[in-house]
Amino acid sequence: MRIAVTGSWRDDDAAQWRLRNKASFFQATAAIGAAFARLGHRLVVATDSKHTADWAAVEGAAKAIPHGRVYDRPVVDLLWSSPETFAELSASRPGFVTPLDAPKSGEVTKLYQVHMADVVLAIGGAEKTLQAAIAAAASGKRVLPVGCFGGAAEQAAQIFSAMAGSWGPHIPGNDVIGPLRTTWTDGSEELVLSALGARNPRLLLVHGRDLRSRDLLAELLTRLQLPSPVVLAAEPSLGRTLPEKFEMLADRVDAAVAMVTPDDVGGLRDESESVLRARARQNVWVEVGWFWGALGRARVLLLGKEGIELPSDLSGLLVEYFRESPVEREPEICQWIESLGWPRPGR
């Protein structure tokens, strides 16, 4: 995922833009940059001026990743302004920074930075930061303003809060923006990662009676350094009905992997028993449909054991088939996770 951290803290802007907590601003921005780098995301930056969030985020990223590793993908996408921009970092750590062509105008480059990014984090800042945040929101980008340091980010937070619900689902609600307007705490970093969809995904694991395949898949996800998957059957009901349990889990997870295995047999009533076909448990298809509707089709991956019959309504749907173990589909699982904007597992 490409992330733009836009903002600044300049003494000349402090009074007009009501900037505050200068030291904490740079510490928090560096910590966020470090977290993004550790998770395998790329920072889209436009300057190495030391009063900017760009600079602080890159400094944090550089400290978070040890020297000597091979950068098969850049950590920083630099919108080229001059050969001197991050020159020392580029020379000492080849592959860490990749320069990209960009407009020469500073104002246009800021908007181009937003255009290049998948998500935008606004923190502190002045006029150009406010323009970038509003432009990103208007173009449908996920934008998160951190208002606790004042500046343009606080103004953007006020605008988004005053017009809550009118921007669409890509702008977090007041339950997220509100805490980030007050103070930076130990939990703020996780709140930022969660709101931007930047942390490793929480995966729900839907399965039937093939517990061996379920356990092998859970072991694979753990080996890929993903959080332990949520297993529907293992989650306590706590007095809730099954639909209530579904709704609760849909709010807690980011995507679902459903294993459809031949646990049942069935056929048309008029057909003889000799033509019965292998089918998944009925509850598995109910759960697939539920989370398909709750999360969106792209966020539900179907892993099917060879020989399973699909419902006719799902004919043509992409299913990753395996013969003996879902581990056979490891490359496709990794590609699917990466396609959702998360870092490639295991990196």
Distance, first to last CA: 13 Å
- The helix tally amounts to 13
Provide the number of structural domains: 2
Mean pLDDT value: 83
* Poorly predicted tracts of residues: none
Largest sheet: 6 strands, parallel
Record the SSE blueprint.
Layout: E1 2-8, H1 11-17, H2 22-38, E2 42-45, H3 53-64, E3 76-79, H4 87-92, E4 97-100, H5 106-116, E5 119-124, H6 127-138, E6 142-146, H7 151-162, H8 174-182, H9 188-196, E7 203-206, H10 211-223, E8 230-231, H11 242-252, E9 255-260, E10 264-266, E11 277-279, H12 282-295, E12 300-305, E13 320-322, H13 330-339
Parallel strand pairs: 1-2, 1-5, 2-3, 3-4, 5-6, 7-8, 7-9, 9-12, 12-13
Antiparallel strand pairs: 10-11
Helix pairs in contact: 2-3, 5-6, 6-7, 7-8
Characterise the protein shown here.
- By secondary structure, the protein is of the alpha/beta class.
- It folds into two domains: 2-196, Rossmann fold (3-Layer(aba) Sandwich); 203-339, Toll/interleukin-1 receptor homology (TIR) domain (Rossmann fold), CATH 3.40.50.10140.
- The protein is 41% helix and 16% strand.
- It is built from 13 helices and 13 strands.
- It has helices spanning 11-17, 22-38, 53-64, 87-92, 106-116, 127-138, 151-162, 174-182, 188-196, 211-223, 242-252, 282-295, 330-339, and strands at residues 2-8, 42-45, 76-79, 97-100, 119-124, 142-146, 203-206, 230-231, 255-260, 264-266, 277-279, 300-305, 320-322.
- It has a six-stranded parallel β-sheet with strand order 4-3-2-1-5-6, sandwiched between helices. It has a five-stranded parallel β-sheet with strand order 8-7-9-12-13.
- α4 links the parallel β3 (76-79) and β4 (97-100).
- α2 (22-38) crosses α3 and α5 packs parallel to α6 (127-138).
- 39% of the residues are buried.
